[in-house]
Amino acid sequence: MFITVCGQKGGVAKTCTSIHLASVWDRQGKNVCIVDADKNRSALAYASRGNLHFPVYPVSAAAKASRGSDIVITDGQASSDEEELKHLAYGSDLVIIPTTPKARSVELTVELANLLNTLKVNHAVLIVKVDSRKQKAALQAREALQKFELEVFDGFIPLLSAFDKAEASGNAVYEAVDDLGRSDPRRMTGWSAYCSIASQVSCLISKHLSDTNNLSKQMPISA
Ligand SMILES: Nc1ncnc2c1ncn2[C@@H]1O[C@H](COP(=O)(O)OP(=O)(O)OP(=O)(O)O)[C@@H](O)[C@H]1O
Ligand SMILES: [Mg+2]
Question: If I label 147, which of 80, 108, 165, 178 is the partner at 20 to 30 A Cα–Cα?
C-alpha cells in the first residue's frame, strides 16, 4: 500500500501525520516505512532524535523502501508546483491532505484536490490541529470541504502540545513527556485520534477501487 501525505501549505502536520500513521501500523505488527520526500528532511530529522520502531528513508532510497515494506508512506514537502505534486501523488493508493480549519488552508486543499481529481488519484482530507475550544471552526471547515465533494476523514486531530513534545524527543505522541520526564496528560487523546484515522484508510482505498470499477462497467464499449 502506498500512501502519500502532501499539501500546498507548510506546517499543517504532514510530517506529524506520516510519523503517527506509521507508528499506528507498526504497533499493529505491519511492515511499514516512511520515505522522506521533503528537501528539509523533516521526517529523517524527527527519527534521528529518538527511537521510532520503523525505518525512515531518504527519497533516494525509495526503491529499497518499497521492496521491503507492506506500507510505504511518503512524507511530501509543502509545494504549489503542479508538476512536483503530480510526481508525488502519482501511483499512490491514497493521498492524504492535512489541513487546519483556517480558511486559507481549506482553500489550498480544495485547489490540490481539484488537481488530484483531474489525475484520478484517490485522496482524502484530514482536519488537523483542532483547538478543543474552537470545534465549531472545524465543523465549518468540514462542511466547506464536503460542499466541494471532497472525501474527509471522520474525526479531527486535536491541537495538543503533546505532539510538540513527541517531536522534540523523536517519539510517537503516546510517549510524550515534558522536560521533567512526566507523561503528558493528553498524549493518549492524540494517539487515539491517529488510530481512528489509520483504521479508515483501507476502507477509503477499497471504496475508491469499487467506485472506479463501477464507473468502468458503466462506460459504453467502443466499437
Ligand atoms: N495536532 C497537533 N497539535 C499541535 N502541534 C502539532 C500538531 N501536529 C503537528 N504539530 C506541530 O506543528 C509543527 C508542524 O508540524 P509538521 O512538521 O508535521 O508540519 P508539516 O506540514 O510537515 O510542515 P512542513 O510544511 O514544514 O513540512 C510541528 O512543530 C509539530 O510538532
Ligand atoms: Mg513536513
Answer: 80
